[in-house]
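yo

u said u wanted the structure for the complex thing, so here. seqs first:
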Amino acid sequence: MALMRGLAALTACWLHAGVASGQSLGVEVTQSVGTSSESISAAGTQIRVLGEALPGLRWNVEGAWATRSRDESDVFGTAYPYEGRAELMEAYGEYHFAPGRGLRAIKGGRYRTPFGISSASDHAYVGFLRPPLIRYGEYYALSSGYLEHGLDVVVGVPRLSVEASVGVSADVGPAIRRPGVNTVVRAEGMAGALILGASFVDTTPYMPERFARGRSRFGGVDARWMKGGVLVRGEWLGGQPFDGTSTTGGYADLIVHRPVMGPVTALVRAERLAYDAAPPRALYSHRYSAGARIRLWKTVAASVGIAHQAGQITQRRRTAFDVGLTGSFRQDYRAHP
Amino acid sequence: MISVLSRHTTARIFTAVVTGVALLAGVAAASARAADDEVSGVVRVGGRSQKDVVVWLEGVTATPPPAQDVVLDQRNLQFLPHVLAVRAGTRVRMPNSDRVFHNVFSFHDGKRFDLGLYPVGTTKAVTFDRPGLSRIFCNIHPNMAAYVLAVDSAHVTVSDRDGRFAIAGVPPGTYTWHAWRPGNHTATGRMTVERGRPVEIGWP
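structre next:
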């Protein structure tokens, strides 16, 4: 809660001081509650303060507090951890060089590990109430709670760019990587409605050293295609969580929001995960999910989902029903020249 | 002979110069009057100044300038401006100025479109070819919302954060005004425009 109080105080100070000429400030607050047939209930709050200090210089601070009644499942773990304490998720400054000369940006601070489809908004808000298996901590792949304290550079043109990040682990959630330097390289290209990406990460494992030796290395490809309110996207990755093991897996999403559907967005996901290790530690699972996100009123939305899975991944029931309610609020302050 | 021709030539040149100067003076005076032809004022709701109100006029006979592209930016996970007013037929360019993807769409009244995902540095455009209100959203960021109101008038503007507005190219006269603000509140009235005299419109 100290973090939340700090963020609130920072925001209040800024507003009290006034937004100087040329600056802008936006404050987003998102509240979520949910329950699952796995007898798990959850509640979370996310605060994001973002703005533009000078032309081209953006900054973003995001904090979250969330809790749930039990931890024996990955339900509600999409965007931030549900561990009952406030967490600073991101805090970075980013400079965008002048447009018209290609795409060039540099980011420094605390930010999500830029591997694959990694933006919080990609994972949190479309309506899925569970993270992809390859994105949940403790499943021997990558965690959506992986964060870097580092420097990130993007160069290219809007339709083809390369991103490189060097940092040290600053993770939140159940999977906390051991100290060490991490590097991520990502290339992304766009052709028509198709966006393709390829990523590689070399990092420290999150497991204890006595159990996991060596480095954690993953390569992955991701794709997004969208047209007429139909989004197809997916990720596939493979690599070693540590020496002598391997993990492969991925997911494919179909997200449909057509005019005739009004406030309803329909979701379908198929995914699998295979962690090859010496028995009995090996882990194989696949899961099929379907659901909907329903905008009830302005920025209040309900999410419903059903997840059916087989395998050894932690889920208290083979088929689970999840329901969530999210309300968000945004206030903008902008200086007029 | 040469001196006669010279006198004729001199007279023609003199006439041309005088005519040109007179024409230029007339054009300059007309331009100055046109520049002065502006209606400005403030929008109030219940006595308080109101931002983001679209104000437009009917019956202005002055020739409007050709419609130019306008910009609805996506920056810091919001649309800028929040309320945009255009003349029907205007092309609105919607650049993505954020490092994340955006997917701009409008499914309800007004112009219906879905621009799909596009990255930072790219721009897509929509022509609002008919009058109507379009509610603009991003499919990925639910807090992003904007209004584009296309009207059948070239004399349209949006009030600033102090409720002030100004519409150029409106000579003195009496006109019908219309106003709209988020929440679908509309108002209509008559105003008399006098040069240099601000007007006040709005809701009681």
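The first helix of chain A runs from residue 2 to 17. The CA atoms of residues 285 and 313 of chain A lie 6 Å apart.
cya
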